[in-house]
Fold this protein.
Amino acid sequence: MKIYEYPLFIPKQLFLNITLSEFEKILFSFLLSHNPKNSTLRVAGGWVRDKILGKENDDIDITIDNISGQEYIKNLESEISSQEKEIMKIIKNSNENSSHLQTATVNLFGKDIDFVNLRKEIYKKNSRVPEITKGTPKEDSFRRDITINCLFYNINKNCIEDFTEKGLNDLKEGLINTPKDPKISFEEDPLRILRVIRFATRFNFKLSKNILDNLLITEEFKNILSIQRIEKEFSKMLENECYYASVYILYKYKYLEYILDIDEYKKINDLINSELLLSSAVNIILIKSYLDKINIINEPKIEKEKLKIANYSFLLAPYKSIEIPEKNKNSILSKVICTKNFSLPKTEINEIIAIIEGENEFINLMKNKGEEILSRINLGLYLMKYKYKNFINIIKLVICEEYLNTLNEKEKIIEEIDENIMNNIFSKYMKIIDYIIKEELEKIENIKPLLDGKKIKELFNIKNGKDIKKYIDILIREQINNPKLTKEDCINIIKNQI
């Protein structure tokens, strides 16, 4: 299997007789016992899909057939006893001017539940904001993105409903399909293109031929979608274990070059080779996925947020050597793209850039110090600045770029990894990892001076803040170099410096 392909998964068994948790039994029973309008209540979307696949999902969205979500909640609130009201809290009320079909969110028995009327959507050209009217279960199903997300669980009848007549079969076959013609579906809402890619790689399902035939980027995608909506779906892809396949598909069908907006930056700096940078970014992600899979460094399972941040760093790494004029100064293109093209929190941007800048500093340290980098002081000071969790990604990034530099055709997408070349590269850096673990430097970032500023001021009558900081820095270096140092040793060190 080529390195950019994800392993396809076909479920061995579908659980068509849904087993409810104790919470779900209590919730559904409560809702049915307070249902004065005789509404048909259905759980929609991901909860149903995951239950059928034998997975747990706490995200319960409930559709109502004959009244709006707001009306249902008002009726529920007026019907329940004062004692029962203690288990119900309205989280989000729609304002008076909003649509009567807008979702109402209520906390019941400690969990947030969404309620919304079944609806039909009609899209106007060049807009992804539809005209919404009340709909039937079938109309509500066909407005959704993919068939496996169109399934309902009828709470009143305790059964699964498949109004597209495709959802259950597509789940059985491990197939991602749209409920209507994908050309029409994607024209209505181009964001669905990113969602079909994300769900395919998340579930290891195959994309249908109809989808693949309509997957190439369109002007509607470029003109209708905001950066924020694109980035939200893109970030979810990078949290997924098959992130590499999502990136490759986006590259193949011309979305990645649009998301990174490289041609725009080329207008500012005509030395940019957009195709080389783009293929390098994809290749680095693919090499990283190989390192993640074999897990030679023996990392624990990575949290989704940390995986996303690392993947952004690797994707943007090829742009770190290019500068773009910005606000009377030059900024590295990696940071410019990260800030302008992705609506990420500042803390995440800082972490992404720290990995990229940390790699540059590490390479320079290797050049300047050679084998001396294996000393406690050099590694300790470096790890204090960049932290061990980032250092693992920094080492991986160094390996990825070094492997990429061994290839003759950098613009060609890698199909497989040469393990001999990889092992030779990796063995160099494994020595450093081994040394860090042997010297117990993983938590060096938490080191504190044995004498704090207040104590130094008191013992040596030093009043200047800069001088105090200078001595603290000296102590930190000495403590890194000699972990058995005592407070008495530290006092003598400062005495000898004064």
Observations:
- The longest strand covers residues 111-117.
- The chain is about 50% helix and 10% strand.
